[in-house]
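Closing statement on the cobalamin sub-project.
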Amino acid sequence: MAQDTNLPASELGNGMKEISDEELYSLIEEAVLDGDAELTMRLVKEALANGVNPDDIVANALVKSMSAVGRDFKNGEFYIPDVLMSSRASHAALFALQSASNAPALTKDRGVVVVGTVAGDLHDIGKNIAALMLQYQRFEVVDLGIDVVPEVFVQAIREHHPIVVGLSALLTTTIGEMRKVIEAVDAAGLRDTTKIYVSGLPVTQEFADEIGADHYCEDARDTLDYVESLVG
Ligand code: B12
């Protein structure tokens, strides 16, 4: 454990080195649930410094913690401000992962992937996790952000010639926007130039088939498998 960490000894024992990876994941998960961005960031940095694999931090701490946030929000134990605090903490973790000196993802020689959350939708945690995992596998990720209208996806395809475009939506009221993106790409004559896949909580394989998407990704791991399968 680095000396500048101000964590209570009771929380961390006598040193981070004595803490197992599992305990560390739990601490990160707890910090995200508490909405403590500073502590989350510090723990992630310490974990990286101690050689913990970034992918494992994402899978075992971040995805888990935001799923727990979702569960608590659903159960009425968390309110929007709590959710916002937790998502802020998870963003801090992603930032720490991205800026870590020992993070992989330095070369981007495997092609471009465009990602974005569709119009009307502000959810971006899942998209950011998927984007980060793709970057670790040396893909260049053009992240269009949230609330992205179809024309911006079309423009990004023209500009970046991606292998694949990943659309994200977390609301039943916004998944219809995915169809609009596919239609706009089609109308621009670009549908044959790129694959389009869809992801997010309310999205299903059936829905993906219905709107003519090339693929449905259940989670970030599935995304990697899919994109890998496209590049060979
Ligand atoms: C965090 C959150 C918020 C935060 C978002 C912060 C942010 N920066 O993202 C805030 C507070 C802003 C928010 C707002 C709202 N939310 Co909200 N939110 C959530 C919550 C709790 C967690 C979502 C999340 O981050 N999950 C964790 C990530 C890791 O999982 P994931 O997104 O599913 O992503 C995984 C896969 O889907 C996939 N994936 C996802 N996207 C992508 C993209 C690509 C390219 C790829 C490859 C993969 C991929 O990979 C990821 C990792 O495996 C969910 C509950 C839940 N159980 O999901 C509700 C939830 C999605 N929200 C909901 C609602 C209703 C709202 C609001 C309308 C609330 C309100 N009354 O204002 C607003 C809408 C705002 C808007 N216009 O978008 C509902 C949606 C219900 C529905 N049927 O539509 C949910 C399900 C909660 C609930 N049970 O009611 N929310």
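The chain has a mean pLDDT of 86. With this model delivered, the sub-project is considered complete and its resources will be redirected to Aim 3.
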